[in-house]
């Protein structure tokens, strides 16, 4: 059974989706790809352990701390390639940024991927179903420019500022 829970953050309402074992989604209300392929209307309101852990993580994060996400039971339901991209994103330290090219380069060392993956990486980053915890907001263009964020560029800027204070 899937459960959903709302979280009120300084940047707006966030919806979390999980079951008794895993967290499957975390989205700002109204963001692109909100709810991905889930029927959120069919989920039950509740706080199984993965959602409770994510809520505690969010409390710490928005309080300006660097909570450890490695112990959270995350299960993004995406393609194998997108899982690899999200794996790379999970290694990006708090308060730092990474470029799409850096992610592409990291993937090439992990596997025999073709060279220019920037577009495919961009698609994977843009469809990250577990925002903030899997830090897609830390991805910038090769020139350092802040590029799109499914939750909106203003939220991306606010998240990056939160991590540098």
TrEMBL record:
Residue span(s) of domain Methylguanine DNA methyltransferase ribonuclease-like: 2-76
Keyword entries, A-Z: DNA damage, DNA repair, Methyltransferase, Transferase
EC class name: transferase
PROSITE patterns, per the entry: MGMT
Catalytic reactions on record: a 4-O-methyl-thymidine in DNA + L-cysteinyl-[protein] = a thymidine in DNA + S-methyl-L-cysteinyl-[protein]; a 6-O-methyl-2'-deoxyguanosine in DNA + L-cysteinyl-[protein] = S-methyl-L-cysteinyl-[protein] + a 2'-deoxyguanosine in DNA
Pfam families, per the entry: DNA_binding_1, Methyltransf_1N
GO biological process: DNA repair; methylation
Gene Ontology molecular function: methylated-DNA-[protein]-cysteine S-methyltransferase activity
EC number: 2.1.1.63
Residue stretches making up the Methylated-DNA-[protein]-cysteine S-methyltransferase DNA binding domain: 80-164
Transmembrane segments: none
Signal peptide feature range: none
Gene3D superfamilies per the UniProt record, alphabetical: Methylated DNA-protein cysteine methyltransferase domain, Winged helix-like DNA-binding domain superfamily/Winged helix DNA-binding domain
Record flagged with keyword Magnesium: no
Family: Belongs to the MGMT family.
NCBIfam families, alphabetized: ogt
Name of the featured protein: methylated-DNA--[protein]-cysteine S-methyltransferase
Natural source organism: Agrilactobacillus composti DSM 18527 = JCM 14202
């Amino acid at each position: 059974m899937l459960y959903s829970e709302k979280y009120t953050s300084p940047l707006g309402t966030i919806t979390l989706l999980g079951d008794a074992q895993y967290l499957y989604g975390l989205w700002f209300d109204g963001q692109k790809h909100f709810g991905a392929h889930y029927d959120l209307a069919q989920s039950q309101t509740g706080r199984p352990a993965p959602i409770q852990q994510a809520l505690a993580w969010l409390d710490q994060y928005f309080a300006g701390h660097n909570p450890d996400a490695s112990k959270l039971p995350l299960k993004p339901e995406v393609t194998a390639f997108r899982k690899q991209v999200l794996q790379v994103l999970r290694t990006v330290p708090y308060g730092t940024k990474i470029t799409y090219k850096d992610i592409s380069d990291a993937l090439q060392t992990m596997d025999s991927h073709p060279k220019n993956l920037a577009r495919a990486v961009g698609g994977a980053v843009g469809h990250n179903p577990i925002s903030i915890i899997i830090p897609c907001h830390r991805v910038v263009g090769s020139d350092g420019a802040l590029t799109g964020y499914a939750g909106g560029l203003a939220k991306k800027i606010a998240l990056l500022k939160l991590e540098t204070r």
